[in-house]
Design goal:
Layout lengths: L2 E6 L1 E2 L8 E2 L1 H14 L1 E2 L2 H9 L8 E8 L3 H12 L4 E5 L28 H9 L3 E4 L12 H19 L5 E3 L7 H9 L4 E3 L16 E2 L6 H7 L4 H6 L1 H7 L4
Parallel strand pairs: 1-5, 1-10, 2-3, 4-5, 5-6, 6-7, 8-9
Helix pairs in contact: 1-3, 5-6
The structure holds zinc ion (ZN).
Zinc ion binds next to strand 5.
Length: 249
Protein backbone atom coordinates (compact mmCIF):
# COMPACT_ATOMS: atom_id res chain seq x y z
CA UNK A 1 0.00 0.00 0.00
CA UNK A 2 1.81 3.18 -1.15
CA UNK A 3 0.43 5.20 1.70
CA UNK A 4 2.24 6.28 4.81
CA UNK A 5 0.16 6.09 7.99
CA UNK A 6 1.61 8.00 10.91
CA UNK A 7 0.66 7.34 14.54
CA UNK A 8 0.73 10.06 17.18
CA UNK A 9 -0.55 10.05 20.76
CA UNK A 10 -0.32 13.38 22.60
CA UNK A 11 0.51 16.86 21.29
CA UNK A 12 1.14 19.25 24.15
CA UNK A 13 3.91 21.13 25.94
CA UNK A 14 5.97 19.87 28.84
CA UNK A 15 4.81 16.26 29.13
CA UNK A 16 8.20 14.63 29.04
CA UNK A 17 7.16 11.23 27.72
CA UNK A 18 7.98 9.53 24.39
CA UNK A 19 4.27 9.55 23.44
CA UNK A 20 4.00 13.35 23.71
CA UNK A 21 5.16 15.62 20.87
CA UNK A 22 5.71 19.32 21.66
CA UNK A 23 3.28 21.66 19.87
CA UNK A 24 6.07 23.54 18.06
CA UNK A 25 7.49 20.24 16.73
CA UNK A 26 4.03 19.11 15.63
CA UNK A 27 3.49 22.42 13.86
CA UNK A 28 6.79 21.99 11.95
CA UNK A 29 5.82 18.42 11.04
CA UNK A 30 2.41 19.59 9.77
CA UNK A 31 4.16 22.21 7.63
CA UNK A 32 6.38 19.48 6.10
CA UNK A 33 3.34 17.28 5.47
CA UNK A 34 1.32 20.07 3.89
CA UNK A 35 4.26 20.92 1.59
CA UNK A 36 5.38 17.46 0.59
CA UNK A 37 2.43 15.04 0.72
CA UNK A 38 -1.32 14.75 0.28
CA UNK A 39 -2.93 14.06 3.64
CA UNK A 40 -6.20 12.18 3.23
CA UNK A 41 -8.76 10.77 5.67
CA UNK A 42 -8.38 7.05 6.39
CA UNK A 43 -11.92 6.43 5.16
CA UNK A 44 -10.93 7.76 1.74
CA UNK A 45 -8.08 5.24 1.53
CA UNK A 46 -10.34 2.36 2.57
CA UNK A 47 -13.00 3.32 0.02
CA UNK A 48 -10.45 3.60 -2.80
CA UNK A 49 -8.91 0.22 -2.02
CA UNK A 50 -12.34 -1.42 -1.64
CA UNK A 51 -13.34 -0.04 -5.05
CA UNK A 52 -10.27 -1.62 -6.59
CA UNK A 53 -8.26 1.58 -7.03
CA UNK A 54 -4.76 2.04 -5.76
CA UNK A 55 -3.74 4.95 -3.57
CA UNK A 56 -1.51 7.56 -5.23
CA UNK A 57 2.08 7.64 -4.09
CA UNK A 58 2.83 10.44 -1.68
CA UNK A 59 -0.40 9.95 0.25
CA UNK A 60 -0.28 10.24 4.02
CA UNK A 61 -2.85 9.40 6.69
CA UNK A 62 -2.56 10.85 10.19
CA UNK A 63 -3.81 8.86 13.17
CA UNK A 64 -3.82 9.47 16.92
CA UNK A 65 -4.25 6.83 19.62
CA UNK A 66 -5.66 6.95 23.17
CA UNK A 67 -8.00 9.98 23.00
CA UNK A 68 -6.04 12.54 25.03
CA UNK A 69 -7.88 15.84 25.46
CA UNK A 70 -4.84 17.78 24.19
CA UNK A 71 -5.95 16.61 20.72
CA UNK A 72 -8.81 19.11 20.85
CA UNK A 73 -6.74 21.83 22.47
CA UNK A 74 -3.56 21.62 20.37
CA UNK A 75 -3.43 19.05 17.56
CA UNK A 76 -6.74 19.74 15.82
CA UNK A 77 -6.32 23.57 15.67
CA UNK A 78 -2.78 23.15 14.24
CA UNK A 79 -3.95 20.59 11.64
CA UNK A 80 -6.84 22.88 10.70
CA UNK A 81 -4.40 25.70 9.99
CA UNK A 82 -2.58 23.45 7.50
CA UNK A 83 -5.73 21.93 5.99
CA UNK A 84 -4.93 18.46 7.35
CA UNK A 85 -7.21 15.86 8.88
CA UNK A 86 -6.76 12.80 11.10
CA UNK A 87 -8.48 9.84 12.72
CA UNK A 88 -8.50 9.55 16.52
CA UNK A 89 -8.67 6.11 18.16
CA UNK A 90 -10.59 6.34 21.41
CA UNK A 91 -10.50 3.92 24.36
CA UNK A 92 -14.24 3.32 24.55
CA UNK A 93 -14.25 2.45 28.27
CA UNK A 94 -13.61 6.16 28.84
CA UNK A 95 -17.16 6.85 27.63
CA UNK A 96 -18.68 4.95 30.55
CA UNK A 97 -19.65 6.77 33.75
CA UNK A 98 -16.55 7.06 35.92
CA UNK A 99 -14.29 6.84 32.90
CA UNK A 100 -11.15 4.73 32.82
CA UNK A 101 -7.68 4.85 34.42
CA UNK A 102 -4.91 5.65 31.95
CA UNK A 103 -2.82 2.69 33.12
CA UNK A 104 -1.17 1.77 29.82
CA UNK A 105 1.64 4.34 29.60
CA UNK A 106 4.86 2.78 30.87
CA UNK A 107 6.25 4.57 33.92
CA UNK A 108 3.21 6.85 34.33
CA UNK A 109 1.07 6.85 37.48
CA UNK A 110 -2.57 6.95 36.23
CA UNK A 111 -3.18 9.72 38.81
CA UNK A 112 -0.73 11.91 36.88
CA UNK A 113 -2.11 11.09 33.43
CA UNK A 114 -3.36 13.96 31.27
CA UNK A 115 -7.16 13.98 30.81
CA UNK A 116 -8.90 12.08 28.05
CA UNK A 117 -11.51 13.68 25.82
CA UNK A 118 -15.06 13.75 27.15
CA UNK A 119 -17.86 12.04 25.20
CA UNK A 120 -19.12 15.52 24.28
CA UNK A 121 -15.74 16.46 22.80
CA UNK A 122 -15.57 13.21 20.82
CA UNK A 123 -19.06 13.71 19.45
CA UNK A 124 -18.32 17.31 18.54
CA UNK A 125 -15.15 16.33 16.66
CA UNK A 126 -17.05 13.70 14.72
CA UNK A 127 -19.76 16.22 13.85
CA UNK A 128 -17.06 18.55 12.49
CA UNK A 129 -15.78 15.77 10.21
CA UNK A 130 -12.88 14.40 12.29
CA UNK A 131 -12.92 10.59 12.06
CA UNK A 132 -13.16 8.51 15.21
CA UNK A 133 -12.14 4.85 15.52
CA UNK A 134 -12.02 2.23 18.26
CA UNK A 135 -8.96 1.64 20.42
CA UNK A 136 -10.82 -1.16 22.30
CA UNK A 137 -12.62 -0.95 25.65
CA UNK A 138 -9.73 -0.84 28.15
CA UNK A 139 -6.47 -0.76 26.18
CA UNK A 140 -5.64 -4.39 27.02
CA UNK A 141 -2.81 -6.23 25.31
CA UNK A 142 -5.15 -8.11 22.98
CA UNK A 143 -2.95 -11.13 22.07
CA UNK A 144 -3.06 -12.12 25.77
CA UNK A 145 -6.89 -12.47 25.55
CA UNK A 146 -8.86 -15.30 23.94
CA UNK A 147 -10.53 -14.84 20.55
CA UNK A 148 -13.95 -14.71 22.27
CA UNK A 149 -12.72 -12.01 24.66
CA UNK A 150 -11.23 -10.00 21.79
CA UNK A 151 -14.44 -10.31 19.80
CA UNK A 152 -16.58 -9.17 22.76
CA UNK A 153 -14.29 -6.17 23.34
CA UNK A 154 -14.12 -5.16 19.68
CA UNK A 155 -17.91 -5.39 19.35
CA UNK A 156 -18.65 -3.55 22.58
CA UNK A 157 -16.29 -0.66 21.81
CA UNK A 158 -17.68 -0.38 18.29
CA UNK A 159 -21.28 -0.28 19.56
CA UNK A 160 -20.54 2.25 22.30
CA UNK A 161 -18.85 4.60 19.85
CA UNK A 162 -21.54 4.12 17.21
CA UNK A 163 -24.22 4.97 19.79
CA UNK A 164 -22.35 8.12 20.73
CA UNK A 165 -21.63 9.23 17.18
CA UNK A 166 -24.82 7.90 15.56
CA UNK A 167 -22.62 6.74 12.69
CA UNK A 168 -20.73 3.57 11.72
CA UNK A 169 -17.28 3.00 13.26
CA UNK A 170 -15.30 0.98 10.75
CA UNK A 171 -11.69 1.12 11.87
CA UNK A 172 -9.79 -0.20 14.86
CA UNK A 173 -6.29 0.44 16.21
CA UNK A 174 -4.80 -2.32 18.36
CA UNK A 175 -3.49 -1.16 21.77
CA UNK A 176 0.31 -1.05 21.62
CA UNK A 177 -0.16 -2.08 17.98
CA UNK A 178 -0.14 -5.71 19.17
CA UNK A 179 -2.05 -8.40 17.33
CA UNK A 180 -1.99 -12.12 16.52
CA UNK A 181 -3.98 -14.39 14.17
CA UNK A 182 -6.87 -14.81 16.65
CA UNK A 183 -6.94 -11.04 17.32
CA UNK A 184 -7.11 -10.26 13.59
CA UNK A 185 -9.90 -12.82 13.11
CA UNK A 186 -11.88 -11.21 15.94
CA UNK A 187 -11.41 -7.74 14.42
CA UNK A 188 -12.83 -8.96 11.12
CA UNK A 189 -15.71 -10.85 12.77
CA UNK A 190 -16.61 -7.75 14.82
CA UNK A 191 -17.30 -5.93 11.56
CA UNK A 192 -14.34 -3.56 11.15
CA UNK A 193 -13.11 -2.91 7.63
CA UNK A 194 -9.54 -2.24 8.68
CA UNK A 195 -7.34 -2.61 11.77
CA UNK A 196 -4.12 -0.72 12.37
CA UNK A 197 -0.91 -2.02 13.90
CA UNK A 198 2.37 -0.38 14.94
CA UNK A 199 5.09 -2.82 13.91
CA UNK A 200 8.33 -2.91 15.85
CA UNK A 201 9.81 -5.56 13.61
CA UNK A 202 9.02 -7.88 10.71
CA UNK A 203 5.28 -8.23 10.32
CA UNK A 204 3.07 -9.25 7.44
CA UNK A 205 0.72 -6.47 6.31
CA UNK A 206 -2.96 -7.05 5.56
CA UNK A 207 -6.31 -5.30 6.06
CA UNK A 208 -6.27 -6.38 9.73
CA UNK A 209 -2.57 -5.63 10.26
CA UNK A 210 -2.03 -2.33 8.48
CA UNK A 211 1.38 -0.96 9.45
CA UNK A 212 1.79 2.52 10.90
CA UNK A 213 4.84 4.53 11.79
CA UNK A 214 4.96 5.90 15.34
CA UNK A 215 6.05 9.53 15.70
CA UNK A 216 7.55 10.14 19.12
CA UNK A 217 8.82 13.01 21.22
CA UNK A 218 11.91 14.77 19.95
CA UNK A 219 12.10 13.00 16.58
CA UNK A 220 14.36 15.47 14.77
CA UNK A 221 13.07 16.71 11.43
CA UNK A 222 15.42 14.60 9.33
CA UNK A 223 14.15 11.52 11.05
CA UNK A 224 10.58 12.69 10.58
CA UNK A 225 11.17 13.06 6.84
CA UNK A 226 12.57 9.54 6.66
CA UNK A 227 9.71 8.18 8.71
CA UNK A 228 7.19 9.75 6.40
CA UNK A 229 8.70 8.40 3.21
CA UNK A 230 6.45 5.75 1.77
CA UNK A 231 8.96 2.93 1.90
CA UNK A 232 9.55 3.32 5.60
CA UNK A 233 6.68 1.15 6.82
CA UNK A 234 7.81 -1.53 4.40
CA UNK A 235 11.43 -1.28 5.47
CA UNK A 236 10.44 -1.47 9.12
CA UNK A 237 8.53 -4.67 8.50
CA UNK A 238 11.32 -6.30 6.52
CA UNK A 239 13.89 -8.59 8.06
CA UNK A 240 16.56 -6.23 6.78
CA UNK A 241 15.34 -3.64 9.24
CA UNK A 242 16.00 -5.97 12.15
CA UNK A 243 19.56 -6.43 10.96
CA UNK A 244 20.36 -2.76 10.43
CA UNK A 245 18.31 -1.17 13.18
CA UNK A 246 20.38 -2.50 16.06
CA UNK A 247 17.92 -1.20 18.59
CA UNK A 248 14.53 0.39 18.55
CA UNK A 249 14.29 4.17 18.34
ZN1 LIG B 1 -2.86 3.24 22.79
Amino acid sequence: MPVSILCYHSVTNGWDDPVSVETADFERQCAVLARSTTVVPLRGVIDRLAAGYSVPAGTTVLTFDDGFADYVEHAVPIMERYGLTATMYVVAGSLEPGGIAVDWIRGLDPADAPPLMTPEQIRELHDRGWEIGSHTMRHADMPTLSEAECLADFKESKELLEDLLEAPVTSLAYPFGHHAPHVRRAAELAGYRIALALPEGPEEAGPYSVPRTGIYRGNPEWKFRVKNSRWYAHVRTSSLYQKVAGRRT
